[in-house]
């Protein structure tokens, strides 16, 4: 499994099952900091398959409750919803001039490199969030919830910001939009953590170690 929470859920089904946790990883040679020619400031970005129930619920909650607070403090903010197959409910948000619904994009890195802050406002969801790992690898400053960092060994305020209430989330985004140094600090720390623990090399080393342990315990 990719998170301890997923392991716990599986164990509830079968307490005797042999289950190990190895998180997902990132190709850090592909997802890396990119200095965009033209940045969009101030901007926030959320990435997902935009047809899924979880994405729709997360965006609905963010747009209804958190985005208005951000917009009142920073009126020229742009919210980018990036991902394939946007549901009609999401497409309708583009009638708001502050919202851009991109649909499918060929290279997510080109969009993320231009964004000011990456958000992952998950209120529902399971597993490890690859898009959070990818944004961290690109040294983006991130605001997310506890659900958004399941399975990722982060320290809030050092690697990214975890905010679980409406006001905390809005205040954290506003703070980062107004603080370039904090954005840089979070981004650098996020990239360092990915290099140390969540690169493909680090993950495959864990996997090989697990295989060796299992093989060594087999009857001779």
Write up this protein.
Pfam families: Glyco_trans_1_4 (PF13692). It comes from Desulfotomaculum copahuensis. This is Glycosyl transferase family 1 domain-containing protein. Helix 5 links the parallel strand 4 and strand 5 (142-144). This protein is globular. It has eight helices and six strands, in the order H-E-H-E-H-E-H-E-H-E-E-H-H-H. The longest helix is centred in the N-terminal third of the chain and has 21 residues, at 53-73. It has 220 residues and is α/β, with parallel strands linked by helices. The protein has one domain (25-198): Rossmann fold.
Can I get a quick summary?
The chain is of the alpha/beta class and 220 residues long.
Topology:
Elements: H1 4-13, E1 43-47, H2 53-73, E2 78-82, H3 88-91, E3 99-103, H4 108-112, E4 117-120, H5 130-137, E5 142-144, E6 161-162, H6 166-177, H7 180-198, H8 200-216
Parallel strand pairs: 1-2, 1-4, 2-3, 4-5, 5-6
Protein name: Glycosyl transferase family 1 domain-containing protein
């Amino acid at each position: 499994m990719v998170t301890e929470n997923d392991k716990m859920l599986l164990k509830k089904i079968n307490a005797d099952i042999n289950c190990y946790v190895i998180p997902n990883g990132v190709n850090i040679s592909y997802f890396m900091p990119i200095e965009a020619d033209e940045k969009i400031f101030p901007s926030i970005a959320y990435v997902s398959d935009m047809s899924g129930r979880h994405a729709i619920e997360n965006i609905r909650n963010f747009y209804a409750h958190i985005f208005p607070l951000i917009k009142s403090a920073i009126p020229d903010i742009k919210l980018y919803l990036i991902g394939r197959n946007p549901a009609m409910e999401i497409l309708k948000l583009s009638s708001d001039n502050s919202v851009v619904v991109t649909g499918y994009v060929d290279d997510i890195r080109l969009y993320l490199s231009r964004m000011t802050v990456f958000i992952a406002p998950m209120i529902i969801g399971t597993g490890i969030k690859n898009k959070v790992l990818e944004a961290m690898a690109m040294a983006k400053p991130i605001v997310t919830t506890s659900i958004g960092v399941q399975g990722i060994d982060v320290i809030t305020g050092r690697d990214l910001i975890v905010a679980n209430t409406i006001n905390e989330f809005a205040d954290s985004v506003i703070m980062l939009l107004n603080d370039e140094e904090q954005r840089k600090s979070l981004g650098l720390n996020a990239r360092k953590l990915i290099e140390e623990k969540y690169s493909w090399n680090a993950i495959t080393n864990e996997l090989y170690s697990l295989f060796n342990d299992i093989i060594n315990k087999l009857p001779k």
